[in-house]
Specification:
Helices cover 40% and strands 19% of the residues. It is of the alpha/beta class. The structure holds nicotinamide-adenine-dinucleotide (NAD).
Length: 359
């Protein structure tokens, strides 16, 4: 098949990890007889420097003409003034709302070979396999906000409509059917009106999926339960801000922020794929970033936007095989051991990919 993929490397370690994922996608294309065109465009802090705009019109166009977008990360100390008029994160919010990407899928797995690295006891991490579905274009990040008077009062507004909750709930229940048929919905229904609407709507959608078990948890209680009994959960669906916080917390289950991928999807096949970590300015330019989250995001791109399931699995299996064979970047290396640079680690994944049988 032919597909166009727009790459937004972004800032910090973004260009380092996206270039590795692109090189592996090129391997996949060559091996499976596909033709992928890669277009690179400016996004985030580097785009502010070049155009005074984190999501400039040329980048919007490049994304519009693509089947999917692979994104690195944006931001860094240079653009971190919270009072600045243009900020890298605005680009992310605009990208999501421009394409109606309301569902953010974040699979979290605990890799047995990395269990010693995670801050939790190894036995807690057995069989951990959670798919977080975070609502991405509603809630408090998109509601009306204001600072008043001389700045001594400010507010943000958490708003949800039934339609917004319904569409993300549909994604969660459909995903659960392909997995262990269990949805946990997270809210704060004992306090927030928007959470009561959220819970009511989840229950209404659940009626259309009688084969899927549904439960509800309050976000504060779940933040603890997820760490105490992580293997209990299958699909977890949450509103935008709760999902943001919980998915970062869940990174401890996999051993490093560098391990986790994500997909942001709307109603069609188009999606934006990115690792969950940020631009990691503390390690940028040193060639030591863990590219796994971006490689696994590229696998999600193959699956969700291009419908290439076998190719997605091949990439995921190659990562698994490289890890099993002991490939480790510094963030997941055993204490006292140096860890591979990003490029050496990528070569180990590439070799494992070459060894994956096509069939
Ligand atoms: P971060 O995720 O960039 O880094 C947190 C810690 O994890 C750092 O010590 C970093 O070195 C480490 N880390 C992250 N990714 C890694 C990888 N792939 N390999 C090895 N180590 C890795 O979070 P932060 O430091 O809070 O934020 C840095 C910048 O990134 C900020 O400007 C923030 O706004 C931005 N940010 C962007 C996104 C995004 O683009 N989606 C997400 C989160 C943060």
């Amino acid at each position: 098949m032919h597909a166009t993929i727009t790459v937004l490397p972004g800032d910090g370690i973004g260009p380092e990890v996206t270039s590795i994922a692109v090189s592996l996608l090129k391997d996949i294309a060559a091996r499976y007889g596909h033709s992928f065109t890669f277009n690179e465009a400016m996004f985030g802090g580097c785009a502010i420097d070049a155009y005074g705009d984190s999501f400039p019109p040329a980048t919007v166009k490049a994304c519009e003409s693509a089947n999917a977008v692979l994104l690195g990360a944006v931001g860094g100390p240079k653009w971190s003034d919270p009072t600045a008029k243009v900020r890298p994160e605005q680009g992310l919010l605009r990208l999501r709302s421009h394409f109606g990407l309301f569902a953010n899928l974040r699979p979290v797995k605990a890799y047995p070979m990395l269990a010693g690295h995670a801050p939790l006891r190894a036995e807690l991490l057995e069989n951990v396999d959670i798919l977080f579905i975070r609502e991405l274009t509603g809630g408090i990040y998109f509601g009306p906000r204001q600072e008043q008077g001389d700045g001594d009062t400010a507010w943000d507004t958490m708003i949800y409509t039934v339609a917004e909750v319904e569409r993300v709930a549909e994604v969660a229940f459909k995903a659960a059917r392909m997995r262990r048929s269990y949805v946990l919905s997270v809210d704060k229904a004992n306090v927030l009106a928007s959470s009561r609407l959220w819970r009511r709507t989840i229950n209404q959608v659940a009626e259309r999926y009688p084969d899927v078990k549904v439960e509800h948890a309050l976000v504060d209680a779940f933040a603890m339960q997820m760490i105490k009994t992580p293997s209990r959960y299958d699909v977890v669906v949450a509103e935008n801000m709760f999902g943001d916080i919980l998915t970062d917390e869940s990174a401890v289950l996999s051993g490093s922020l560098g391990m986790l991928p994500s997909a942001s999807l709307g109603t069609g096949k188009f999606g934006v794929y990115e690792p969950i970590h940020g631009s990691a300015p503390d390690i940028a330019g040193r060639g030591i970033a863990n590219p796994t989250g971006t490689i696994l995001s590229a696998a999600m791109l193959l699956r969700h936007s291009l419908g290439l399931e076998a190719e997605a699995l091949a990439l995921e299996n190659a990562v698994q095989a490289a890890l099993e064979a002991g490939a480790r970047t510094g963030d997941i290396a055993e204490p006292g051991k140096p860890g591979l640079g990003s490029a050496e680690y990528a070569e180990r994944v590439r070799a494992a990919l070459a060894a994956v049988k096509i069939g």
